[in-house]
Write a structure and sequence with these properties.
Length: 113
């Protein structure tokens, strides 16, 4: 019977899984901090992308560590959705800038009236 550690490639075993978890959670926390504290729409957009990349990193690490390709398939689909999000989000930001000459999300309350 093959043990779990023998089925994991040597290059992946050099970095423990906890390091990936710590790095991914740090990136996710930085993204949350960026969303909650910044008022510039582009910075908020970049912070959301940072949170998606933190999740992708963790999915890829667990997938590689446990030799299960399903996590990497999820990463592929998340990246495709993120690319579509970038296209739509930037188009919305450009249209907001054309209308109100600012990308400050605090000014967007004027659009409610």
């Amino acid at each position: 019977m093959i043990s779990t550690m023998q089925s994991i490639p040597e290059i992946i075993r050099t970095i423990p899984l906890t390091h990936y978890v710590i790095l991914s959670s740090a990136l996710f926390c930085i993204g949350i901090l960026g969303v909650l504290t910044r008022r510039n729409a582009i910075i908020v957009f970049m912070a959301i992308e940072l949170m998606l990349n933190a999740v992708n990193l963790l999915l890829a690490a667990f997938s590689s560590y446990y030799s299960d390709p399903s996590g990497q398939i999820f990463v592929f689909f998340i990246m495709a959705v993120a690319a579509a999000e970038v296209a739509v989000g930037l188009a919305i930001i450009v249209m907001i800038y054309r209308n109100i000459q600012s990308i400050d999300i605090g000014i967007l309350n004027k659009l409610k009236n």
